[in-house]
Amino acid sequence: MKNRPSLPLQGVTVLELGHTVMGPTCGMILADLGAEVYKVEKTGNGDDTRSLKGFGSGFFTCFNRNKQSISLDLKHEKGRDLFLRLVEHADVLIENFGPGAMNRLGLDYESCRARNESIIYCSLKGFMPGPYENRPALDEVVQMMGGLAYMTGPSGRPLRAGASVTDIVGGSFGAIGILAALIKRRETGVGQFVKASLFESVAFLVSQHIGVAAVSGEAPPPMPERGRAWSVYDLFTTADGEQLFIGVTSDKHFSRLCTTFGYDDWLVDDRLATNQGRIEARDWFLPELGKRLARLDKKKLMALAEEAGIPFAPVNRPVDLVTDEHLIKSGGLDDVRMPGGASALLPKLPLQLDNKPLALRRQPPRVGEGARELFERIGVSEIHLKTMVEEKIIQLAD
Asked: How many CB atoms are closer than 10 A to CB 335?
């Protein structure tokens, strides 16, 4: 399927040596923006995420749309040589192998730059260069050591975030670095070595809490125990046993809440006239608000909150989003093919260009799907391809 001419990265060729979440996220962002991204996988069953079960079973489908696949044995000398030929024709290389892996393969930045000085080489690692750089890292590892888990759970019970936050953020920063390097290359003609990392991404995520400590002189407690800046910023249980979050963050919010919900007595209660007054009255005010709201079912409560123009949110599960009317009507979901052939609605990148979301152009590839065209483009003969397939150096799906 041809790239849309209007996509900003059309004509950019990317080799993605990415696995699990971080590398594939970086590659997917570029692919969604129009780049021709080739996911480089091992021969045989391809990337390990194709066969993961349980919590990892959706990884491949979620992070590998709009790509093609090259199945290549990089540990074989002929496979390595073929990959370096691809490097000569590529604009970008992405890798998130473990520390030292690319050096051992002979595919480090200097080796690739020797073949193509305009290559933009993006390494996605656990840590930036420093004392920790050779440590293996995982999303959960850096959430713990970076303070994110501490801030998420209550005291004594650090809790990782409920998604691969640092993998996705780290991969996104890698994509930002690549975009900056592509712009700079227009001026110089020379590529760059781009690095992004998990640990430093967590540090950036928690920088707001570091800032609080710097300003106040006190380290903030975990988020479940934080002090209240707003009088109403809580979960409430509805008459039908559901939960709804409501935030009242201004005096106007409170006035509209009272008017819309019929709480006229509170409009003339001087104790509740200001946000600070309502905070000081939380011991009696919040339980009373909870009792009043508990008389309403979820549907009615949401309708009134919408009418009042106050922030509110139902407590959804991720699977509830595939039937969310806003995501459906805003075009925020794509019908993506799963490994078994069935399809699933999955969220797009949270971006629009020219008031349009970025489209699904290619389904997640089969192992080796799309490689033949690229090999032919760089001058690999049909006979040579056949020989390498027979020697199990490459694998073709078409």
From this structure: 10
SS3 for 10? coil
Domain of 313 in residue numbering reads as 228-318
Token look-up 């935030």 returns: 247
Q: Enumerate the H helices of 156-281 as residue ranges.
A: 165-188, 198-205, 207-216, 251-261, 264-267, 275-280
Domain count, the chain: 2
What is the rounded distance in angstroms from the CA atom of residue 203 to the CA atom of residue 201?
A: 5
Q: Do 245 and 191 belong to one domain?
A: no
Q: Are residues 103 and 138 in the same domain?
A: yes
Contact partners, residue 39, CB within 8 Å, separation at least 6: 16, 18, 24, 27, 47, 64, 67, 68, 69, 70, 365
Instruction: Tell me, yes or no, if 167 is annotated catalytic.
Output: yes
d(CA 119, CA 14): 10
pLDDT digits (tens, 9 = 90+) for 194-243: 999 999 999 999 999 999 999 999 999 999 988 778 999 999 999 999 99
Cα–Cα distance list, 158 to 61, 148, 153 (Å): 30, 8, 5
- Between CA 397 and CA 366 the distance in angstroms is 7
State how far Cα 64 lies from the chain centre.
Answer: 12
> In the numeric block, which tokens belong to residue 314?
């139902």
Closest CA to 70 of 383, 361, 380, 394: 394
Q: CA-based Rg of the chain, rounded to a whole angstrom?
A: 26
Residue 63 and residue 31: Cα distance in Å, rounded? 10
Q: What are the counts of helices (DSSP H) followed by strands (DSSP E) for the chain?
A: 18, 14
**Marked catalytic residue, from 32, 91, 167, 334:** 167
- pLDDT at 5 (0 to 100): 52
Interval 30-45: pLDDT, tens:
999 999 999 999 999 9
Query: pLDDT, tens digit, for every residue of 277-287?
Result: 999 999 999 99
- Residue 398 has a pLDDT of 65
Tell me the two tokens of residue 277. Answer: 């007054």
Q: Within this chain, do residues 283 and 159 fall inside the same structural domain, yes or no?
A: no
Scan for tokens 């996509």, then name that residue: 7
